Amino acid sequence: MEFILNPYALTLIISSLLVGGLSVYIGFKLEDSVRWIVFTMLASSVWGFFYGIELTAQTVDDMLVWSKLQYAGLVMAPSCWVVFSLKYTGYDSSDKPWVYPSLFFLPIVTYILVLTNSWHHLHYRSTWLITSGPFPILGIEKGIWYPVLVAYSYVFYFLGTFTLWKRFKYANLHFQRQTQLLIMGGLFPFVFNLLYQAAWFKPFDGLDITPYAFLFTYLLISIAILRFNLFNLKPVAREKILEVMTHGAIIFDHRHKIVDFNSAARKFWNDPLDLKIGVPAEQIFHSHPEILQLLGQPSHRVLQTRMSKKDCFWDVKVESVPLSDSGAIVSGGLMLFENITEQIKTNEQLKKQASELQQLNDLKDKFFSIISHDLKGPVFGVKELIHLTQNGIVTEEEFLEMLPEISKNMEHVAILLENLLAWTSSQLRGEYIQRETLDLGKLIRSQKNLLERIAREKSILLELRGFEDIWASVDKNMFELIIRNLVSNAIKFSKPGSKVLISCEQEDKTLKLCVKDYGMGISEENLQKLNAGISFSTRGQSNESGTGLGLLLVREYIVKNGGTLTIDSKLGEGTKFCVTVPRAKAPVPVA
């Protein structure tokens, strides 16, 4: 073989070696998915290197040998470009494993046809030597497969370029610059090849300037990779970071248009398709101006808002983080969305439980005080009186005189013990509700008889109204305790010589039972405590002591029986407690 160097061949050989060397070096610096740009550059350098050697050859046979070698790079460069574009933009081929191998089917077939062209002449129909220029050039007559090579090369370059443009046309400035440089890397050589294929620009009647264009472009890209860390921030890596985030994330550019978002962000919109690359913030936040105001703020901001989700609402925490390219110049913003609905419910539940626990602790302290004073005092008093009587210090006549007062104290102790035992049962193991269909009139009259003596001692009349043929569905023991506490409480605060009215009204599905006294009444402050379920105690008309436990149990037992409690009172005029309970039909008599 005879080789004669010329400036065109020398330029191609040197630039090909330079791009090839840079490609190998860069290949060790980049990650796997981005490394395919290196394979594209390496394929182009193989094409350019062997085309440069072809330009030094002097015979057709020698030129065809180098032509076959240069086609190894020429046919592979378009496929490598498409693979790089797909991997660089994060294309997921896990469910389509055949995609990448299929891209190399036509290049492999084409190269086999090139190697065996002398048998079938499908690629080159004929070849000759062009000697009209300053150096010999291989002349070719295209075979039927040659247009196939040109067509799939153009389609592949367009496909890769369009994939890049489609993915990053609204990206931030960094990725826009990367994409612009890469698109230029694909289109610049394409334009020169189009001029060559159309014979509009073919120096010396056959010189192909496409390899020059490729090598020049990839030389610039190599410098950009090494000097400016072109692929230091890979979109795929950034996308993976966004996707593993549990919070919704949306990235806006300086024009407040969406340039990226993760799949979690779609969950915050009724129609997930409303969230698209390039959509302005004004469009997606038109119903939330408070969120829109966060964009463009120079510092990190956080707000809590409520967003509608079809048939419900979400409480959402929104964080706005400004993104700056340099200094204080805001080039975009990151918004993070977190659904805190359950968190708020949990916090409210914890606050409620903490409040209830505090009330229970306060009540516990109060009960210990009750046991140590209200119970201890009367019991020890009776014990001491018995001791004095036994020793003859107190005579039988004196003992009998004190007996009514002792009896009154024991009545108070009995009610207190009953309430304490009932409350302890309720708090420690809960209450089993055993509903019965009860004759409410009979139950009320029974409780009236039990409390009649206490009322008579204060000259108070207990009056019943509306209890004829009244039936209720309640727990008997609980309802008896409710009545005893309400009536005894009314007696306690009634003026001597007045009355306590116990009445009942029939409603649609409920019975309304009211206990009204004409005594002291309740102050507004204490009325608010009662309505809030806060335990407290006050002394009665005759200085009777109390614990506040009775009304607490009344409210709890009414709720457990499916009823309600209302309290109306005016100072100096009296108080009216009204209880609603489920109404029941009278049982059918058994024949």
How far is the first residue's CA from the last residue's CA?
A: 129 Å
CATH domain topology of the largest domain: Rhopdopsin 7-helix transmembrane proteins
Q: What's the number of domains?
A: 4
Mean pLDDT comes to 78
CATH architecture classification of the largest domain = Up-down Bundle
Helix content: 40-55%
Using the CA coordinates, give the radius of gyration: 48 Å
The assigned structural class equals alpha+beta
> Under the CATH scheme, which class of the largest domain?
Mainly Alpha
Strand order of the largest sheet: 4-3-7-6-5
User: What's the story with the biggest beta sheet?
Assistant: 5 strands, antiparallel
Number of helical stretches of at least 4 residues: 19
Number of E-type strands: 14
Tell me the β content: 15-25%
Return residue spans where pLDDT drops below 50 for at least 5 consecutive residues.
232-237
Catalytic activity: ATP + protein L-histidine = ADP + protein N-phospho-L-histidine
Enzyme class: transferase
EC number: 2.7.13.3
Pfam families: HATPase_c, HisKA_7TM
Give an overview in words:
The chain crosses the membrane at residues 6-27, 34-53, 65-86, 98-119, 144-165, 181-200, 212-230. GO terms for molecular function: kinase activity. It catalyses: ATP + protein L-histidine = ADP + protein N-phospho-L-histidine. The protein contains 19 helices and 14 strands. It is an alpha+beta fold. It folds into four domains: 7-235, Up-down Bundle (Rhopdopsin 7-helix transmembrane proteins); 245-339, Beta-Lactamase, CATH 3.30.450; 343-430, Orthogonal Bundle (Helix Hairpins); 431-591, Histidine kinase-like ATPase, C-terminal domain (Heat Shock Protein 90, 2-Layer Sandwich). The strands form four sheets. Strands 4-3-7-6-5 form a five-stranded antiparallel beta sheet, with helices on one face. A five-stranded mixed beta sheet has the order 9-11-12-14-13. α9 packs antiparallel against α10 (210-228) and α17 (476-493) packs antiparallel against α19 (549-560). It is rod-shaped and about 155 Å long. The N and C termini lie far apart (129 Å). Residues 232-237 have low confidence and may be disordered.
